[in-house]
Amino acid sequence: MSSLQPNLPVTEPETALAAGVRAPDFTLPATPDQQLSLSDLSGQPVILAFYPADWSPVCGDQMALYNQILPEFHRYGAQLVGISTDGVWCHAAFAQDRKLHFPLLADFQPKGEVARRYGVYRDHEGTSARALFVIDGTGVIRWSHVSPVGLNPGADGILDALDAFATPHAEPASGALS
């Protein structure tokens, strides 16, 4: 038997948008006084990492992993953007504490609007699912993945998706003389 209370409907997220679909544009707060739109990143690959909440152990590990391998994403010219239903002040504290070097966007008001448009809002919890979208420079989703909330999806899927359509930039040889 389930430990859920009886008569409470539990709805999982709608089906996440799939590869081949145009990514819905959005504008969300990146800081208390700055907004970021998906269209601002047009022309380059974009990784959208929806996650349930700042400060949760799995989310913290996931964002720290992405921060650590950010240079790999940048090799493909890709911009990483984290999105959750937390507010901008919570994001600011979380990003500062974790020393994150990519924007965290607040899908806070109206709560979960962008997550709903991507099919990854968890109504019964008021958070987004743990979902990843890799979008090409023309705004088309090339790969999407939804993980169980308690599981860090890692970065292999993201890197495989980027490798399938984006050309990595050459890295300078270590120790090369200028």
From TrEMBL:
Show the active-site residues.
C59
Taxonomic superkingdom: Bacteria
Q: What keywords are annotated for this sequence in UniProt?
A: Oxidoreductase, Peroxidase, Redox-active center
Any GO MF annotation of the entry? peroxidase activity
In this protein, which residues make up the domain named Thioredoxin? 17-167
Q: Does the keyword Oxidoreductase apply?
A: yes
Per its UniProt record, what InterPro entries does this chain match?
AhpC/TSA, Peroxiredoxin_AhpC-typ, Thioredoxin-like_sf, Thioredoxin_domain, Tpx_Peroxidase_subfamily
State the name under which the record lists this protein.
Thioredoxin peroxidase
What is the originating organism of this protein?
Azorhizobium oxalatiphilum
